[in-house]
Specification:
Number of helices: 7
Largest sheet: 29 strands, mixed
Strand content: over 45%
Distance between the termini: 96 Å
Structural class: mainly beta
Helix content: 10-25%
């Protein structure tokens, strides 16, 4: 055998043996790693943690070490028993092998080459008393001076197709993120470096104080942050945040206190462009259909500043301004467009508490067809006790809406809705029936309403409807309609309208309902139990009568009764 062939053969055998050893090592240490992981979790985490499989590999990211956890889940206990905080399809940790050896020999920092989460689902909840389901770490005893602390340096964080939801009852904030993709890169072993982040979300929604600010908005963040680890300061320069088509330029600093939970914020944002189309893209009904073909004119401006500390017991000062002048839009394949759109919004908080936020819609004006609509609103103390001042004047021809905006699944829409109303009240005054402190006047009138839609099982036709406001309630003075084959006439009252709109409380009311013919077959559920669905958060008492009611083979005459 020639020497070259012998050398090749020896090298091949050595490589094969090395591969076998690297592949076999995880088999010998896998159980030991799992037991060690369980022991560490039991002493550090106050939650139910489970997974399907833990794998160790020296080949997947050779020459680095990778640990993979499949189907990891973290669920709450006690107050949050049964709540799943986190669930991931796969979590991977890649460690630099040289840094692991350096830590074992000389106590050097362990370098995490990659930490990735595949399809994580995160549900965050905080109750009104401040308890949160993410506070799951157990207090740790003080370590002895002789014990060696583990220093970890992260190089890359990846998140793939995440879903995140937040229900914060203390701040009255509800938010959701779907299709979250995150790539964060930086050398955390250095005192100063550039932290690069690329973030995308298919859909982001946020409601604060009962008011929706974002609804199914696509978000992109591109930032190269100057990270100063000694000063715990991160500086934003020429970074951009995109909300649908709206682009915001970000600048400022974020500081983290050593061992303190508060963030120091001094961040400002503004729009580098002033086209009305950009802010119009935040309207879901318009952005969802052929937005790239939309013809627009007008100008807009959006700017804001956040300054101060943010944490469990701190809230920064903020000032946000949004303005639209002479806006108009029109689809080229629809007969009508909206014009004379004007909008001015101010959101302020002097700092200290989220409940100090004041939301002031100073002006809203738009003309649809030939009908103008004007509104203004002022909301204070949105968390503890919403104080709302609302004024709406104008009318809308629903047929003009269908001729202006592309409505998905709507086959027919017509009729006129006119409003001339104003109200000023605190939710607590309404709940306590202190009507002398409530100001409410005006009415809402609807006539010849017809709605046919793929999402509504039966066509709706409202001949007349009249709702009159007073300090005690809203009086339904007239209502005649036909839903499917059933006719309905009603009068009554609605209570707690403000609590229903702003505070997710029940809408209460009492009404007298009459029908010449009511067909219950049209309201059967498709489920085998034939449940008739009832809208949520409705607390109604109905005095009902019908000349004839049909249900299956039954036909009932002169039906009277009470329905709760």
């Amino acid at each position: 055998m020639r020497p070259l062939r012998k050398i090749v053969l020896v090298v091949g055998v050595v490589i094969a043996a090395l591969v076998l050893v690297l592949a076999a090592i995880p088999l010998f240490f896998g159980d030991r790693i799992t037991e060690r992981l369980k022991a560490q979790i039991s002493t550090s985490i106050d939650a139910r943690v489970a997974w399907r499989h833990v794998g160790l590999s020296l080949l997947r990211h050779f020459p680095n070490v990778s640990v993979t956890v499949s189907n990891l889940s973290v669920a709450g206990v006690r107050t949050f028993a049964g709540d799943t905080l986190l669930a991931t399809r796969q979590t991977r940790l890649v460690l630099d092998l040289g840094s692991v050896i350096g830590y074992l020999r000389r106590g050097e920092s362990i370098v995490v080459r990659e930490l990735s989460f595949e399809q994580p689902i995160v549900h965050l909840r905080r109750l009104a008393d401040g308890s949160a389901n993410w506070n799951i770490t157990k207090p740790q005893p003080e370590t002895r001076a002789s014990s060696r602390a583990v220093s970890v340096s992260l190089r890359q964080l990846r998140i793939d197709n995440a879903i995140v939801s937040l229900d914060d009852r203390q701040s009255n904030l509800v938010a959701s993120v779907k299709g979250l993709e995150e790539s964060l890169n930086g050398d955390f072993s250095k005192d100063r470096f550039v932290l690069s982040t690329r973030t995308h979300a298919d859909s982001v929604s946020a409601t604060f104080g009962g008011i929706p600010y974002l609804k199914r908005v696509a978000v992109d963040l591109d930032a190269n942050v100057d990270a100063d680890m000694r000063a715990n300061r991160f500086t934003l320069t020429r970074d951009t945040l995109r909300l649908n088509k709206l682009v915001l330029a970000l600048a400022g600093t974020v500081t983290t206190g050593a061992g303190a939970p508060d963030l120091g914020l001094d961040v400002s944002f503004s729009t580098p462009r002033t086209a009305f189309a950009e802010i119009l893209s935040l309207v879901p009904a318009i952005y969802a259909r052929d937005f790239d073909k939309l013809q627009t004119s007008g100008s807009m401006a959006l700017s804001g500043q956040v300054r101060g500390k943010y944490g469990p017991k701190a809230f920064p000062a903020l000032a946000i301004r949004a303005r639209v002048d002479n806006g108009s839009f029109r689809y080229p394949d629809l007969p009508l467009g909206a014009k004379d759109v004007a909008f001015e919004l101010a959101l302020d908080n002097p700092g200290g508490n989220v409940d100090n936020t004041v939301i002031d819609l100073k002006r809203f004006h738009a003309v649809l067809g030939k009908r103008p609509l004007d509104a203004r609103a002022l909301v204070k103390t949105p968390v503890s006790d919403p104080d709302a001042d609302l004024r709406i004047v104008g009318s809308v021809d629903l047929a003009d809406v269908a001729r202006t905006v592309k409505l998905r699944g709507v086959n027919e829409l017509s009729g006129v809705v006119a409003a001339d109303l104003s109200t000023h009240a605190r939710v607590s005054d309404v709940d306590a029936r202190r009507y002398d402190r409530v100001a409410a006047a005006g009415s809402i009138q609807a006539s010849r309403i017809v709605v046919r839609s793929a999402t509504i099982p039966h066509p709706i036709a409202v001949d007349t409807a009249s709702l009159t406001l007073n300090p005690r309630n809203a009086q339904l003075t007239a209502f005649t309609s036909k839903i499917g084959n059933s006719d309905v006439r009603a009068i009554g009252s609605l209570d707690n309208l403000l609590g229903y709109v702003l505070h997710d409380e029940d809408l209460r009311g009492r009404a007298t309902v009459a029908s010449s013919r009511f067909d219950l077959n049209e309201w059967k559920s498709k489920e085998k139990t034939e449940v008739i669905p009832v809208p949520p958060r409705i607390d109604f008492a109905l005095d009902a009568s019908a000349d004839r009611v049909t249900y299956g083979p039954l036909t009932l005459a002169n039906v009277k009764g009470n329905l709760e």
